[in-house]
Amino acid sequence: MDAPLVNVGIMTGKALSFVFNGEYIHTESSSFLTGEQRALFVNGNIVYNGKLYKELFFEPASPQSSFDLKAVTIGVDFHWQRQEDQRFKGALNLVATNDGIVVINSIDVEEYLTSVISSEMSATASKELLKAHAVISRSWLLAQIEKNFRLGNASEKYESCHRDNNQLIRWYDREDHTMFDVCADDHCQRYQGITRASTAIVQEAVHETHGEILTDGESICDARFSKCCGGVTEQFEHCWEPVPHSYLTVVRDSKETSYPDLTDPIEAEMWIRNSPNAFCNTTKKKILSQVLNNYDQETINFYRWKVSYTQDELSELIHRKSGIDFGEIQDLVPLKRGTSGRIEELQIVGTRRIYTIGKELEIRRTLSETHLYSSAFVVDKEDIRVRIPQRFVLTGAGWGHGVGLCQIGAAVMGEKGYAYTKILEHYFRGAFIEKRY
């Protein structure tokens, strides 16, 4: 069985500039194209070479052909958001939608993975870490394609949001996409084509794990990963739909196996205010540079971190992000925490309104211009005047949702000589490796 193809959503734009390096075939006209190209979005159509289209498909004439896409936005809504030109292999598909032209890259899964590993990780990472990441990225991708198929055939519409007068509980996942399998940004997996220079070791890691996936014995594992768990991993159901996954459970990120009950508010506060030993508790540049690209290394304070807001800053931010006028903010009250101490439900208490939000990403988006590092935090209220705090200090733990593999912890394990199979056993309890193709 050959590796399957994956359709990756790269961007949506009103004016596209792209360059064919080598020959591409426009499938509708069967013409061979090279060099610079432009496509414009006009009145719901794609204008290309003087003609109107609803969809365009360009197939590479040879495996060596590639295309450059100009001004792709990466890190959408994150603190390091920026634009860059990117190069891709495989086919190029342009589709007209209500919002503009959607750019989709159709690519062999193994080619896709070579890029993902180079985009998500540094090519200087240890080979065992790269092999572990190749297996989980492949597993996650194929699990999402299977999930998309199931959702498409389901009798009931999938819901990822519950809203009423008292609360908004929402999670963000792969099912946000309907036109392609996965997107190219952090919402799914970072995929930046062959822009991120791959190295021999990345190619070896993908080749040596070719076709390998994680399985729980019945289905492909929905293998998640984040930057830094903060010392204990999170269970799947506290971040996404309330469906437990046996292999995405609580794990202490160290040789020790015991861990505190971080769903308990007192235990969570003690844990977050301290800096317990863990694989991911490291500031070693050699290790961090294996996981963090240049823009991610703009800070090293993520195992434990602090953010502070004045009353005016916080009330304006929450009003703008939530669309709700709370008045002055009196309190931020964690109502429910997950196994890593991440807040699943947060009550915002204002002078005009009390409202509960969740899950973790909704909380992170509401309390930050981009994203808080995580929702595992405790709140200190300072300079209280007539029951109104003038400053809020959030002390937090970890970076990302904390479910599954902890990238920085896995990097430390790789440096310590753990084989990729042992790294996967550590983070995905009860799962095992199977060669699918």
UniProtKB/TrEMBL annotation:
Pfam families reported for this sequence: SpoIID (PF08486)
Biological process (GO), any one: sporulation resulting in formation of a cellular spore
Start and end residues of each Sporulation stage II protein D amidase enhancer LytB N-terminal domain: 98-215
Signal peptide interval: none
Coiled coil feature spans: none
InterPro entries per record: Bact_Sporulation_Assoc, SpoIID/LytB, SpoIID/LytB_N
Domain of life: Bacteria
GO cellular component annotations of the record: outer membrane-bounded periplasmic space
PANTHER family referenced in this protein's UniProt entry, alphabetically: AMIDASE ENHANCER, N-ACETYLMURAMOYL-L-ALANINE AMIDASE-RELATED
Protein's name according to its UniProt entry: SpoIID/LytB domain-containing protein
Species, as recorded: Parabacteroides goldsteinii CL02T12C30
